[in-house]
Design brief:
Number of helices: 12
Strand order of the largest sheet: 2-5-4-3-7-6-1-8
CATH topology of the largest domain: At1g16640 B3 domain
Oligomer: single chain
Radius of gyration: 24 Å
Strand content: 15-25%
Number of domains: 3
CATH superfamily of the largest domain: DNA-binding pseudobarrel domain
Low-confidence stretches: none
Order of helices and strands: EHEHEEEEEHEHHHHEHEEHEEHEHH
Mean pLDDT: 91
CATH class of the largest domain: Mainly Beta
CATH architecture of the largest domain: Beta Barrel
């Protein structure tokens, strides 16, 4: 097990495309997946049918959250009573809310976690979620029948970075990152309380003094996001521990359940909103350092508030200002189907831009973006998670900034 790699969380992973009989319960009552010899090398070869706890998740782009159900897989040798034949192991799975959503061609992933439990993912075929799970675990060709298996999870591909951590947390795997060397500094600087996101973003940048935000824009943005995430999780973990040490008493039977649930929900919501705000804060600094004029969350038609308008809100609302020199940038750390929200902002601008940190968005989604005149912008390091055809269309941050400067100084 190597810290900071997939091996920290998984022993091995297997993936395949679901066949009709595996996905369609009207065509088969077997409820089984055939296990391969390489899967059994890390899961084991039990002599008797063995029920293994499993968390099932169904992932699709149109679902705001995964469909989750806890159940089990039963691993058994279907030829146990035929001693003259070689063993043939199968996984029996029960009917769940996840299995009922499955369709032929969907991606199936069975991953054994470090505690021995299984994580069973079913991803809608050709969805961004399917592409992201394939990229996360390094599966590139699943056209053949049967499982492809990985039990070596410490290669460079398996190293966890910002984009891969986002995917893991979306499937319920909590990735612990920390920057403990800065904890005392943060406690003193912020008097033991979380500051505003703008203050925290500025502090995160101050700990990375060697970055050049003018010449290394793509690298700087990702480095700032990585550092802020580590600092925030470190500080948050300390504050949560303090709150939990107080307890949630004085409720029914001496336990304040509602208070605990409210606290837990506030932590989750803060994590989600803070990432997007941090991304906007760091982009704002990049624009300022490069001399780019902009307005942040300016009001346009129908009270819409695009994340950034260039060169500014005054120019946007000036009917005489050339629309070809106007630019709108939406910012979403992850897209899913929410990218369509950007299309309704800034009516004067026909060709809009969207910056995200989401890896491996499906070709179906990016084709639709192109058809809707929406240009996707990602840090250069994330381009490799897309297909070669998609990469030819994607824009990186440096190119986006160059376009802004050209429009800003156009005569």
């Amino acid at each position: 097990m190597k810290k900071g790699y997939l091996s920290e969380y998984f022993v091995g992973v297997a993936a395949k495309r679901l066949s009709a009989v595996e996905a369609d319960e009207t065509r088969s009552n077997q409820h089984e997946y055939n296990a391969t010899k390489t899967m059994l090398m890390f899961i084991g070869r039990p002599a008797e049918p063995t029920r293994i706890p499993a968390r099932f998740l169904y992932l699709a782009d149109e679902e705001s959250e995964p469909i989750v159900e806890d159940a089990f897989l039963t691993l058994y040798d279907s030829r146990k009573d035929q001693p003259k034949r070689s063993a043939e192991y199968r996984f029996y799975f029960p009917t769940t809310s996840v299995s009922q959503k499955a369709s032929e061609g969907d991606l199936l992933v069975i991953a054994q976690q470090r505690n021995g439990d299984l994580l069973v993912l079913i991803c809608d075929n050709d969805s961004s979620m399917s592409r992201q799970i394939e990229w996360l675990f390094g599966f590139t060709d699943l056209a053949h029948q049967g499982f492809s298996v990985k039990s070596e999870l410490e290669t460079e591909q398996d190293r966890l970075e910002f984009a891969s951590r986002l995917i893991l947390e979306n499937i319920g795997v909590v990735v612990e990152i920390s920057a403990d060397a800065y904890l005392d500094t943060m406690l003193k600087k912020f008097s033991g309380k979380l500051p505003t996101t703008r203050e925290f973003s500025a502090f995160a940048r101050s700990t990375l003094k060697d970055l050049n935000p003018v010449d290394e824009q793509d690298l700087a943005l990702m480095a700032w996001m990585e550092r802020e995430e580590a600092l925030f999780r470190t500080f948050e973990r300390h504050l949560i521990a303090d709150r939990l040490s107080i307890g949630f008493g004085n409720g029914v039977n001496g336990v304040d359940v509602d208070g605990f649930l409210s606290f837990s929900l506030s932590v989750q919501n803060r994590r989600k909103s803070r990432v997007g705000l941090a991304l906007e804060n760091h982009l704002e600094l990049l624009f300022n350092e490069s001399g780019i004029q902009f307005s942040r969350t300016a009001v346009t038609e129908n009270k819409a508030k695009p994340d950034f308008i260039f060169p500014n809100a005054v120019a946007y609302h000036d009917a005489a200002f050339d629309t070809l020199r106007l630019t709108m940038l939406g910012v979403k750390s992850t897209c899913k189907d929410r990218w369509r929200q950007v299309l309704a902002e800034a009516d004067r601008i026909d060709h809009k831009h969207l910056l995200t940190l989401e890896a491996s968005i499906s070709k179906h989604q990016t084709d639709e973006m192109r058809a809707k005149n929406l240009q996707l912008v990602l840090p250069r390091g994330l381009h490799e998670t897309y297909t070669p055809e998609q990469q030819a269309w994607l824009m990186d941050i440096s190119s986006f900034m160059a376009m802004l400067r050209e429009r800003q100084y156009a005569k």
